[in-house]
Every structure is written in C-alpha cells, then in structure tokens.
Amino acid sequence: MTTPDTQRPRPGSDILRTALRRNLGAMVWGTVLMGLYQAGETAFPIALGLIVEHTMRDRGLGSLGLSIAALAVIITTVSLSWRFGMRVLQKANTTEAHRWRVKVAACGLQPVARDVDLKSGEVLTIATEDADQTADIIEVVPLLISSLVAVAVAAVALGLADVRLGLLVIVGTGAIMSVLSVLSRRIGSSTQEQQARVARAGAKVADLITGLRPLHGFGGNHAAFRSYRKASTEAKLQAITVAKVNGAYAGAALALNAVLAGAVTLTAGWLAFDGQISIGELVMAVGLAQFIMEPLRLFSEMPKYVMIARASAARMALVLTAPPVTTPGTEHPAAGGDLELDCVRYGTLRNLKFQVSAGEFVAIAAYQPRAAADLAAILSLNVPPDAYEGVVRVSGRPLGDLAVEAVRAHMLVNPYDGEIFAGTLRTNIDPSGTSRTLPEAVEASMLTDVVALHRDGLDHGVRDRGANLSGGQRQRLSLARALAADTDILVLHDPTTAVDAVTEQLIARGVAKLRRGRTTVVITSSPALLDAADRVLVLDDGVITTEDTHRNLLATDEDYCQAVAR
Known about the structure:
Layout: H1 4-7, H2 11-22, H3 24-57, H4 61-108, H5 120-135, H6 137-161, H7 163-210, H8 212-217, H9 221-273, H10 279-291, H11 293-320, E1 339-346, E2 349-356, E3 361-366, H12 369-379, E4 389-394, E5 397-398, H13 404-410, E6 411-414, E7 423-424, H14 425-429, H15 438-444, H16 448-453, E8 461-462, H17 471-485, E9 489-493, H18 501-514, E10 519-523, H19 527-532, E11 535-540, E12 543-548, H20 550-556, H21 558-564
Parallel strand pairs: 3-10, 3-11, 6-9, 9-10
Antiparallel strand pairs: 1-2, 1-4, 4-5, 7-8, 11-12
Helix pairs in contact: 2-11, 3-4, 3-6, 3-10, 4-5, 4-6, 5-7, 5-11, 6-7, 6-11, 7-9, 7-11, 9-10, 9-11, 15-17, 15-18
C-alpha cells in the first residue's frame, strides 16, 4: 500500500510540470513544425523510391518534372518547418530559463532567508546552469515527439512494402530505448552529483575572492588555494565520470542505431533478391535505413536530456521549496527611535539589557569582537527572534511581531564589511536614487576627497567589490550609504577601522552632526566615535557592565582605558 509521502509529487517534478504547462502553446506549435520537418526528412527516401519505381515504368519527361516538383515541395517543407519550429522552441526555452533565474534570485534576495544548506556560489550555479538545463525540457519534449513521428512514418512506409521491415523498425526501436533508458538513469544521478560538486567549487572560489586581501595579509593564500584545488579536483573527477557515462551512452546509441539501419538494409536487399519487393521499394528501404539514423539518434538522446533536466529541477527545488528560517510578524514599528534589549541570550551574549532613547547617540564598547558580531547579527535580523532568548523591542514593539521589510526600513544595521557593487560612487551610496541627504552623507563620511579626486565625481566608476578603491575608501563608501538612507534608527558596526586617526575624528564629528535628533548606535572601540556619543555602554563578557561618557570612563575605569586607548 502506498503511503501519503510516496504519493506526493517531488518538487523537482513539480518544477518541470510548471515549465511544460505554461509553455504548452509554444510546445504544440513547435511539435507540429518539428513533426513536419521529421516527416519531410523521412518522406525524402520514400519519394526517391517512388520516383525510381514510376520512372522504370514510365520514362516520360512529365513524370520526371512531377518528381522534381515533389522533391522541391519536400525540401521546402523541411527547410521552413525546421527554421520556424526551432525559433518557436528556442524562444520559449530562453524565456523559461529567464523566469527560473529570476525566481531563484528572488528567493535569495527575500528579506527572510530560506533554510537551505547552500552557499552563495552554489545558489549562483543553480540560478544559471540549472535554470538553463531545466528549461531545456521545453525543446526536449517536442523533439522527442517529432523523432517518434519520423520513426512511425518510416515503419509504416516499410511495412507497406513488407510487413517484416516495418516490424523490424518497431521492435528495434523498442529494444534500443530499453537499453538506453538504463544508461540515462545513470547519467541523471552522475550529473546531479557533478552539478553539486561544481557548485561547491564555485562557492569556495567566491569565498576566497571575497577574503583575498586578508588571506594575503597573514599568508593564508597558499592553504586557501590548496583547499580550492581539492574541491575543484573533486568536481573534475566527477565530470570525468559523467563524460565516461555520456560517452558510453552516445557510443551505445550510435552502435545500436547503426545495427538497426544495417539490419533494415540487409533485410530489404534479401527481400529484393528474393523478388518479394521491387527495386523502387529496395531504394526506399535503403534510403530510409540511412535517413532514419538521424531521428533515431535524436530519439535515443532525448532520455538523457530528460534526466539532466530532472536533476537540475531537483537542485532548483532545494532553493525554491526551502522554508523560511523564521515566520516574521506583520506589524510596523511605531514612529520614533526607541531601541531596547531585554535579557537577550545568544552566542556570547548573556542576559544583555540596555535601552536607547529616541534621538540618542549611544556607543557600545565591546571588549570581545564575537559579542559585537552577535549583537549586530541580532539587530540586523540575521538571527531569527525565536533563535535567542529575551526580547528586542523597536519603538516599543517586539522584533518578532514586526514585518522584516518594515524593520529594515525603520532600522538600518550597517555591517563592518559592507559589500561594494560594480557601478558608480553614486549608485553605491544611493542605489534607489531617492536619498535626500546624499551630499550631507558624503561629507559626513569624509568621502569628499574620493569624489574630488576624480573628474566624474560621484559618477566615477567602481569595480565589483570596490576593487579600484582602498580599504578605507570602501569603508567610507559603505558608511556614506548608511547615512544616506536616513533611517529612524541607525546601527553602525566598526565603521572606521580602516581609516586613519585624523579622518576618524572628522567622521565622528560628521556622523554626530548629521544624525543629531535621530537614534544612532555605534558598536566600536574608536576613541573618536566613543567621545562623540552621548554615552558609552561597556559590553564585557556578554553583559553591560557599566555606562557613562567616554571621558568619565577614561578617568575612572582602567580596563576601559586599556581597551580603547590608542
């Protein structure tokens, strides 16, 4: 008895069915046109056989002209049906691949992350190669049907000449497909494993490129290269395995098709020698035996592409059907900028409690970097509210009750390693083009010297990951972006670690001036930013141990002096 679990369709199959369903019209037209193409191809040797048959009985020029006209019609049909059929199918294929790429990318860009154990490089591979291979099913099905049409036409034509020839084609095709179906399943499983290993290698190299400078800094680049080489070697070995299976499949298909064509030719020759079929029918049979090789090749290759499409669809389902890591609320934060953490326990944080009033500029001096990272992760919603103890309240409302989009529009947490995108300075600072404080943000972040350095100013080109900027310039660019957002609550995590002391002092003053009256929290050990804050909270061993102004703490707390003095 079948259990409910086995009755449920697999998500990968659902993806393929969706692709087939919404391209049904294009596939019908493509099947009709490609069927005409295959029928025309198969009709060519049939027409040649009939021409020979009639020419031997009637040697008139009229019959010859009629035969040439018939061949011209067949050739025209073959040419036009292939041209327009492939145009319809390839347009549908590329459009469907685009839809799945956008869908996978949309899943990756959702405010709430999905619970899937894949790195960004693996998701990138799924959004490109797997999306394309899944969409290939749009072409595979019509080509499979049209190849079947060609085989059927050939079997009928040969059967009319002699039933044994028709049965030979039908039985031979069935035997070929039975043998190849076993190999196609092996291809599917091997290809899925290869795609996974290539994706892991891509994720590895993406991670290495992101951390290339730090790796060079402490000499870890050689160990990192060996790690990538190992992942790439595993992908290479699996690719070789897939190539072997594909080679065996292609070789078996070619050999079996040749055996069938040879069997049809020899049988037809024997029947003609025995006087059971005419010379015209012999010519037709020999011609069909040659022409049928192409549709048989297509027909035998299609199961392989079906298995590859299924494997790719199953990988896409890993992303598209993965549940969100949390179920966010639907409420919106109230106006204002209060921020409160009440008895929060997570990672290195233990019973963390503090409150920031609306409009206050508060600095948090975290003695342990891990604690600073855990706090930033919670406030940036990278940690779901149900993954930690305690409550975080934004403008008086628990974080778990609020919609993620609403929280991020109300409170921006800018990481210390903010990503820089290919584009311009302007598009990096104000991606949406709607900021009303862009000039002030550029000035407060001390990015003015970078803007003034280039003739294009804010329209100066920036390479991917800010490759043409220094570390300090990238950090100031990220800070300018955070300030330009002008949110009610702004949380900055180590925004000035890569700038010199003089620039850091100017940035601290600029941030305090620009954010006056807006709630600002800076997690930092920078003396300049600590001094610019209204008060400093000392985070040590996961709790707030003391709070005061920076100067009072310098005068009264020796541990604080040692932690922040430079």
